[in-house]
Every structure is written in C-alpha cells, then in structure tokens.
Amino acid sequence: MKQDELKQAVARAAIDYVPQGIIGVGTGSTANFFIDELATIRGRFEAAVASSEATAQRLKNHGIQVLDLNSVGELEIYVDGADEITRHMHMIKGGGGALTREKIVAACSKKFICLADDSKLVEVLGKFPLPVEVIPMAQSHVARELVKLGGQPVLRTGFTTDNGNVILDVHNLAITNPVELEKQINQIVGVVTNGLFAQRPADILLLGTADGVKTMQAG
Ligand SMILES: O=C[C@H](O)[C@H](O)[C@H](O)COP(=O)(O)O
C-alpha cells in the first residue's frame, strides 16, 4: 500500500474519535488528510482550533469554523501526525516547522490522537533530525549549546515559523531519555521549544499498516 493510502486510512479512522464540540487540528500531510475527512462530517462538530496558519487556511477552505485557542476552554481531542513515534507514544514532531503551536494546542487537549503510517514507528527516536524553534538572535548560541549535547544542528534555510522564528534541525542526537532531553533543550536560552513530545506523549496511536489500521496506546 502506498504511504498516502495509509495516511488516508488513519485519517478516516480518526473520525470515530471526533466529539461534538471543538477539535484541535495538527499540521502536515497526514493532518491534511484528516482535515479533508472532517469536511465530510461538517455539522457533526462545532469548530476547530488550528496548530498553524496552513491548517487554519485548509480548514477554512472546507468551510470549517476556526477558533482562537484563547477563546475556548480545554479541548476534548487533538489530532496530529508525527515524524517518529515509539511504543511509549513519545514523538518527534516539527518536520513541517509547526512544533510550537502544535505543542500548545496539544497541551490544551485532554487526548492526543496521533496518526501515522507504519514507517514512523521506531524503537528509538532520533533518526529524524530533531527540530528546535529558536529566536533568530539566539541562533548561534543555541547551536553551540546543542553541539555540547552531542548534536549537529543545521539551520533550516529559507524557513520562518508562523511565530517569526528559525528552526535548527539537530542531527545525530542519541535520544535515550526523551523526557529529560526535551526539558534540557527547552532550558537553553533562546529556544522556544523543541520537537520532542515526551513530557506530553500521545494517548492513542492510529497506525496505518498494510493489514489495516492498528490502534495502540502507551505500553
Ligand atoms: O510540523 C509539522 C508536524 O509536526 C507534522 O505533524 C509532522 O512533521 C508530520 O508530518 P507529515 O504528516 O507530513 O509526515
């Protein structure tokens, strides 16, 4: 099965989790499939909160109302993809550069439902370079600190986040303790946040495989 077909299958499966109220919606190609599925059930839920400008635009294009996070209470669910995910539901996210807003919307949601094709399921995180969102003037400082942690930071050239910042993609990190590393990187002055979602892992993983969609939880 092609990767896009797997993404579409998990996006369709996620519709079963959509509550009547307001949904947090992630960013990326898998989230886009989910948005397109949401469009088919418009009217069965109230509105959405978007984790990026791109997602907000796609939702609006489908006629789905997009609300400001500050105007709503806690969300029932947040649905998003990942670049890598482990059986413990720890993730690397931010391949599309939306990590900070994604982390914020996820933090405001009771349940994180991760959608992924089976190429994203890994034993240990870190083959995918870890995105770190950085205030532009702190770029060199943060890069030096990331080298001290054993990584090789590479500036994502020509890319600015929705928040006006830059991304350093950190290669070759040995991510043996994702919870600690997430905290450690976030303590570097100038870092907005990093793409490790370990302190707040996913609750449910809908994994697209050639044998169908598997539902997994932390274990
Ligand atoms: O910033 C982007 C997000 O974290 C995405 O959820 C992640 O990169 C996965 O994207 P895709 O579904 O396109 O593989």
TrEMBL record:
Any Pfam family the entry gives: Rib_5-P_isom_A
CDD domains the UniProt entry points to: RPI_A (cd01398)
Reactions performed catalytically: aldehydo-D-ribose 5-phosphate = D-ribulose 5-phosphate
Ligand binding (substrate): 27-30, 80-83, 93-96, 120
The protein's annotated pathway: Carbohydrate degradation; pentose phosphate pathway; D-ribose 5-phosphate from D-ribulose 5-phosphate (non-oxidative stage): step 1/1
Highest taxon of the lineage: Bacteria
Active site (catalytic residues): 102
Enzyme Commission (EC) number: 5.3.1.6
UniProt GO MF annotations: ribose-5-phosphate isomerase activity
One Gene Ontology term from the biological process aspect of the record: D-ribose metabolic process
GO CC annotation: cytosol
Keywords, sorted A to Z: Isomerase
InterPro entries (UniProt xref): NagB/RpiA_transferase-like, Ribose5P_isomerase_typA_subgr, Ribose5P_isomerase_type_A
The keyword Disulfide bond is assigned to this record: no
Root EC class: isomerase
Alphabetical list of HAMAP family matching this protein: Rib_5P_isom_A
Task performed by this protein: Catalyzes the reversible conversion of ribose-5-phosphate to ribulose 5-phosphate.
Assembly information from the UniProt record: Homodimer.
Homology family: Belongs to the ribose 5-phosphate isomerase family.
Protein name as annotated: Ribose-5-phosphate isomerase A
Organism field: Sulfuriferula plumbiphila
Gene: rpiA
